[in-house]
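Box 3.1 A note on notation
Throughout this textbook, protein chains are presented in two layers. The first layer is the amino acid sequence; the second is a token string describing backbone geometry. Keep the layers aligned when reading.
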Amino acid sequence: EPTVRTELMEQIPPIAIFLQESRPNFPTAFFEYLMPIVVRYLTDVNNQVRKAGQEALLILLEQDLVAQSDIENKVCPILLDLSAPDSDDEYKVEAVNIICKMASMLSRTTVEHMLLPRFCELCSDGKLFQVRKICAANFGDICNAVGQEATERLLIPKFFELCSDSVWGMRKACAECFMAVSYTTSPEVRRSKLSPLFISLISDTCRWVRQAAFQSLGPFISTFANPSSAGLYIREDGTLSIRPSAQDVNSSSCQPNNVTLMSPSANA
């Protein structure tokens, strides 16, 4: 029964945490018995079972309970198969969604070598706009996961494609994550490539795209500031924050010590 398998998936994370805390007594139980079930249920025929399996996997990754070898040898290959060009549409949409969500939880090397090439392919998926939409909405997180070099070499060309996509929702999603993408690049790329690209979004024919771009204008401009002098930085939760200077900290002013500005990508 699918309901039984779904309930089982919901119990996997607390069982895994218990086994981790009692590892001397159960050194291999999780890797031998539970992890194979989670991986298998990612391809279950029932939608609710797959969703429960995906949620369980993300919790396990967030809690750092999955070994690096299992990630590279079991989880990533399944996701690559599910997101292949000839994969079922529903499976592909689910796979790209979980790839984007888990990118921030994996090592940079794993993401860049195993998942980034497929993500770049999915950004150009001409069959399913839902796939491109997920890529666009999570573009900033992928850039942050792989760093500046891979972003400028592989991701910026794909970002240009998505910013000129025929579907306005794609362009709107790009406008919303523009600050996060810009923050990952060098000042020269921001000035020479991203600035003209942002102007195209702020002049878009669709008012929803223009509105999203105007909302991202301030955060985008902030990425041009020198972090050492302006104190601007991006938190892990996607918020743009201002770190107080030493002079402000030592002063007796009643001004707040820290100001947090929400980036559009944090609300996406």
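The mean pLDDT is 85. The two ends are 35 Å apart (CA to CA).
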